[in-house]
């Protein structure tokens, strides 16, 4: 397959937020002084140019502006970043350009500007559809404001998605089923649904340790997961990845780049990338601190602080770990090609007996609905 026919994504990280959510362990930062957007836009363009020198001749099939809160950027800044990508790589005619946005009225007023700049898909961080939960999650918008922003997104873009968090404190399966039905009425084609996880280093972690934040126990969490799958399946948004649901053909193409083990460039503070250079897969990561990243880029053209060469076994393990998150599963022949050894047929047979995986007539290996809740164990077993 020629290089132009392969998917190639560009991820751009905008690291700033208005406030830090208590559950969030992403690379996001609050700054009370105004951000020098022109300086950051110039640095993004510089890092894009340097990355394109290392990985030339690619055709960009998807661009994802993530964060942080990219909808805090002016549309002109987004336009400058997209122009830089188009200057240094070929961009596919049907490129998917996603921007993550907070569902507030202030940011929704910029949607027309983002559309003009070249964004054709937005992903809204709604997180919950009731005000008490939003307040508990540290969100700055109300449920009404979120739904108004979704309506503006619907008018501004052909494609949009939003996120919800479930397994929240005191949430019951019946409450979640109602909220989910409401969400699917609003969602059109795509929803990202994440179980609340308590991450070390976040305010929620300290509260949880102190017994002041109680999340659903394992049995309730599993019931909430089952409600998610059943409701989304029944209403036409089946899972195509463990946390992502879409109508057929409406999957997020950029995220499929990650899960299918394809190439992507990571641009901006704390961004990760996977680049094939001279036939070797490089795992890159940039400086996380925004101002330190900025100075590195201005001094040397990039902010990369980690550039690891992945050996065949590491590549194969990553392919397995990411690919088995997908409903489409993996082609075991690709695992063999990457690792130089096939998956152990005895382990496959055992996992099939246990009902954790299936193998279709073409040999494609998929995790079952009962295997997904224990996905980490399935992957560890196959990779051993």
Automatic annotation (TrEMBL):
Compartments where located:
Cytoplasm
The record's listing under SMART domains reads:
Elp3
Name any cofactors this protein relies on.
[4Fe-4S] cluster
- Gene Ontology biological process terms from the UniProt entry: porphyrin-containing compound biosynthetic process
What sections of the sequence does the record tag as coiled-coil? none
Q: What NCBIfam families does this protein map onto? A: hemN_rel
Role this protein plays: Probably acts as a heme chaperone, transferring heme to an unknown acceptor. Binds one molecule of heme per monomer, possibly covalently. Binds 1 [4Fe-4S] cluster. The cluster is coordinated with 3 cysteines and an exchangeable S-adenosyl-L-methionine.
Q: What name goes with this protein?
A: Heme chaperone HemW
Question: What organism does the record attribute this protein to?
Answer: Bradyrhizobium neotropicale
């Amino acid at each position: 397959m020629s290089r132009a026919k392969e998917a190639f994504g560009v991820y751009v990280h905008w690291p700033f937020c208005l406030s830090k959510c208590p559950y969030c362990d992403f690379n996001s930062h609050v700054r009370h002084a105004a951000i020098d957007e022109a300086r950051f836009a110039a640095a993004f363009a510089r890092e894009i140019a340097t990355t394109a020198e290392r990985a030339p001749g690619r055709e960009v099939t998807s661009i994802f502006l993530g964060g942080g809160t990219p909808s805090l950027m002016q549309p002109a800044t987004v336009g400058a970043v997209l122009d830089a990508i188009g200057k240094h790589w070929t961009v596919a005619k049907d490129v998917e350009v996603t921007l993550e946005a907070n569902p507030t009225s202030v940011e929704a007023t910029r949607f027309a500007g983002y559309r003009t700049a070249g964004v054709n898909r937005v992903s809204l961080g709604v997180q919950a559809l009731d005000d008490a939960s939003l307040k508990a999650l540290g969100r700055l918008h109300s449920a009404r404001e979120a739904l108004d922003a979704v309506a503006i997104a619907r008018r501004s873009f052909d494609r949009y998605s939003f996120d919800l968090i479930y397994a929240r404190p005191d949430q019951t399966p019946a409450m979640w089923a109602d909220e989910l039905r409401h969400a699917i009425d609003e969602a059109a084609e795509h929803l990202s649904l994440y179980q609340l996880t308590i991450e070390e280093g976040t305010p929620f972690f300290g509260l949880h340790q102190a017994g002041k934040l109680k999340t659903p126990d394992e049995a309730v969490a599993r019931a909430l997961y089952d409600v998610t799958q059943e409701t989304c399946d029944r209403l036409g948004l089946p899972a195509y990845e463990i946390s992502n649901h879409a109508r057929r053909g409406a999957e997020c193409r950029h995220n499929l780049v990650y899960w299918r083990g394809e190439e992507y460039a990571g641009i901006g503070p704390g961004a990760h990338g996977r680049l094939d250079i001279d036939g070797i897969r490089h795992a890159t990561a940039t400086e996380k601190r925004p101002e330190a990243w900025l100075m590195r880029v201005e001094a040397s053209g990039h902010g990369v602080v980690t550039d690891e060469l992945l050996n065949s076994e590491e590549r194969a393990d990553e392919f397995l770990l990411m690919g088995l998150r997908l409903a489409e599963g993996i082609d075991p022949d690709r695992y063999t090609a990457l690792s130089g050894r096939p998956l152990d047929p005895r382990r496959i047979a055992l996992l099939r007996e246990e009902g954790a995986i299936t193998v279709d007539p073409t040999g494609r290996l998929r995790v079952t609905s009962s295997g997904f809740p224990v996905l980490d164990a399935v992957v560890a077993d196959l990779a051993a």
